[in-house]
Amino acid sequence: MSAALKQKPVARQWTVAPATEGDWEGIWQIFHDVVQDGDTYSYDESTPEETARQVWVGAGKYGTGCQAFVVKDGEKIVGTYSLKRNHYGRGDHIANAGYMVHKDYRGQGVARSLCVHSLAEAKRQGCISMQFNYVVSTNTAAVEAWQSMGFTIIGVSPKSYRHKQHGLVDIYIMHRFLEDM
Amino acid sequence: MSAALKQKPVARQWTVAPATEGDWEGIWQIFHDVVQDGDTYSYDESTPEETARQVWVGAGKYGTGCQAFVVKDGEKIVGTYSLKRNHYGRGDHIANAGYMVHKDYRGQGVARSLCVHSLAEAKRQGCISMQFNYVVSTNTAAVEAWQSMGFTIIGVSPKSYRHKQHGLVDIYIMHRFLEDM
């Protein structure tokens, strides 16, 4: 048995980079596809491209700005995140991000690579923590992934999501500090 | 001792009505004054009027719209609230509101009148609950007022507010259902 065969499969390394204008089409394809499922984001199936662009790469809440980053497999965009400030002014030291992965590339470490990058980038920009305001409680894969990356559930908003299959389900608010990034 | 003297002071009744375009100046005066204190809202002292207008009566997050309401004492605007949806699409059945009272009219039941109106209005519009995402934990008067009106703390975001006097303090997320409104 060769050494190569004995090795465990290694999670592929993904490179995360700031999105450029030309990346929008690939981001939108992922965004549009993800919201069809109606089980992870508040944006519904009919979300127009212009709204998606606004929430992913636009001015953000109160004009604090959204910055998009992407992971590519060759020329193909396979994952993206959008980084913003969770609040304006006296709350602008807290980051917020959303993540989306192309359906053909899930379970391959893309989301984790995006998240690690976003935490480091948020810290670099001076934020002290990252908060997710809107983790659908039935999305256990996401909840567990974020927990494994140091996030804790700091709040539960009851019945705040109309899940396409399950009806009204809870929303989790998750948080982690960035000191150790 | 006359019957009149034995009576406890009765909280004044305030009438809440939708804001009109001409009300903006009075709203802005309260908004600008409130954010100077740096102890209740994330908008800081330098928040420009156009930003204030956007967050109070503008298109809102994702274009879901903000509606302002006012309380007047004669012609003078003494309190205002802004009602919006807490999320887009699959989360748009949850309401969110912000309240501000003129400094000369605090402790006179204006905030309570505004809140009662906002809960009824949110229910009328089809929302099942009201959520406050950003109650500064050191603002005990507000926390206790909301609790007395049926809100509970459903989450604590640590060190998420840069208080002008106290530095980094926690933010509470508060919530109540609207079934009984």
> What is the strand content of chain A?
25-35%
Largest sheet of chain A: 7 strands, mixed
Roughly how many Å apart are the termini of chain A?
39 Å
Class inferred from helices and paired strands of chain A: alpha+beta
Largest interface: A-B, 43 and 43 residues
Chain-averaged pLDDT of chain A? 90
What low-confidence regions of chain A span 5 or more consecutive residues with pLDDT below 50? none
Task: Briefly characterize the structure.
Chain A is of the alpha+beta class.
Spell out the key features of this protein.
28% helix, alpha+beta, 7 strands, homodimer, 181 residues, 5 helices, seven-stranded mixed β-sheet, globular
Give an account of the 3D structure.
The structure is a homodimer of 181-residue chains. Chain A has 181 residues and is α+β, with helices and mostly antiparallel strands. In chain A, 28% of the residues lie in helices and 33% in strands. Chain A has five helices and seven strands; from the N terminus they run αβααβββαβαββ. Chain A has a seven-stranded mixed beta sheet, sandwiched between helices. In chain A, helix 4 (110-124) links the parallel strand 4 and strand 5.
